[in-house]
């Protein structure tokens, strides 16, 4: 195949897009790159299902109707609307990358950008109530492994850290000796932030480090690790999710209001909402969470019923000051009516 013909193929630039542009030039996280790769892989499989070959499917074949058919196919396969939209967003991003390097593809990129996303009504994100949160954080016991589990649960909530950030924490990122103890967190886009932690969390971390990072334990750079064949490895996301589910099920009989599924991000969301409801400025909450924009943080800005009541009372002072229409004195009331 001639090089000129190859460059007209839709998937001819996916490797450069994923491995060069997103990874090296945009410094996107491995998780983000994987999401884009998965989306383009799902699209590639749809192309094959339509009886088309990667050797002939070109940019001109990626029409509006073809993409609408792709979105319909995803829904029939049981994908959530948010997942369908994520895959479409990846294709749009890829096409703009192609068009930036090849002006002849700008019309195709523009057409792709106008394919509508599926309407996906936002559902109320579940939070942990104060009672459920306290029960969950105190659910582990005092055995060695349970002390580790407590440290994970408490740190997830107190620092509002992402799961991926927690698992990438090194022992050197934890500073417990400073006047204000803190974590050095490496977030999305290789951005670094400092987040302070409470004295209670410091206590749990000290207990954990004393047991899992001493002269009798294997050398491990990561704060939380697993030991396989006498080799330390970063703890997996699945392992943390299992830990959380284990204690969620333990407390569920006494707390039936606990959300059906408790996951690591729920602790982050609960912490962010609690900070906002405690009158912490949104800009500061955004900094703690590692958001590039406060617009992203606004999804956690959920007012409590007390905040709503207070705001409504403040906005209607004349209603609050309203006097009863009729006096309580029966004689005076009779006089008003013109009788005795």
From TrEMBL:
InterPro entries, A to Z: CB, DNA_brk_join_enz, Integrase-like_cat_sf, Integrase_catalytic, Integrase_recombinase_N, Integrase_SAM-like_N, Tyrosine_recombinase_XerCD
Record-level GO BP terms: DNA integration; DNA recombination
Keyword DNA-binding carried by entry: yes
Residue span(s) of domain Tyr recombinase: 123-313
Gene3D superfamilies named in the record: 1.10.150.130, Intergrase catalytic core
SUPFAM superfamilies linked: DNA breaking-rejoining enzymes (SSF56349), lambda integrase-like, N-terminal domain (SSF47823)
Residue span, Core-binding (CB) domain: 12-99
MF (Gene Ontology): DNA binding
Record's keyword terms, sorted: DNA integration, DNA recombination, DNA-binding
Family according to the record: Belongs to the 'phage' integrase family.
Function description: Site-specific tyrosine recombinase, which acts by catalyzing the cutting and rejoining of the recombining DNA molecules.
Protein name: Tyrosine-type recombinase/integrase
């Amino acid at each position: 195949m001639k090089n000129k013909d190859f460059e007209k193929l839709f998937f001819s630039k996916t490797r450069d897009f994923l491995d060069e542009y997103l990874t090296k030039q945009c410094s996107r996280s491995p998780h983000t790159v994987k999401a884009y790769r998965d989306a383009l892989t799902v699209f590639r499989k749809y192309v094959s299902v339509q009886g088309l070959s990667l050797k002939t499917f070109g940019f001109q074949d990626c029409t509006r109707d073809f993409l609408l058919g792709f979105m319909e196919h995803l829904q029939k396969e049981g994908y959530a609307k948010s997942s369908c939209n994520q895959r479409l967003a990846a294709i749009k991003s890829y096409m703009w990358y192609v068009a930036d390097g090849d002006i002849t593809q700008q019309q195709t990129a523009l057409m792709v950008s106008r394919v509508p996303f599926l309407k996906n009504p936002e559902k109320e994100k579940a939070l942990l109530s104060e009672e459920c949160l306290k029960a969950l954080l105190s659910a582990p016991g005092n055995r060695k492994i349970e002390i580790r589990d407590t440290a994970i649960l408490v740190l997830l909530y107190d620092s509002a850290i992402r799961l991926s950030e927690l698992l990438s924490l090194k022992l050197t990122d934890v500073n417990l000796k400073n006047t204000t103890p803190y974590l050095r967190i490496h977030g999305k886009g290789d951005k670094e932030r400092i987040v302070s932690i409470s004295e209670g969390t410091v206590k749990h971390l000290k207990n954990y480090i004393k047991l899992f990072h001493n002269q009798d334990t294997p050398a491990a750079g990561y704060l939380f690790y697993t030991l396989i064949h006498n080799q330390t490895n970063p703890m997996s996301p699945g392992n943390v999710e299992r830990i959380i589910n284990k204690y969620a099920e333990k407390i569920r009989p006494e707390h039936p209001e606990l959300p059906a599924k408790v996951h690591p991000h729920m602790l982050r969301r609960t912490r962010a909402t609690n900070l906002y409801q405690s009158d912490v400025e949104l800009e500061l909450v955004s900094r703690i969470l590692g958001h590039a924009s406060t617009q992203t943080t606004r999804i956690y800005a959920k007012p409590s019923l007390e905040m709503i009541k207070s705001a409504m009372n403040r906005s209607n002072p004349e209603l609050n000051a309203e006097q009863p229409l009729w006096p309580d004195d029966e004689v005076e009331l009779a006089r008003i009516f013109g009788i005795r």
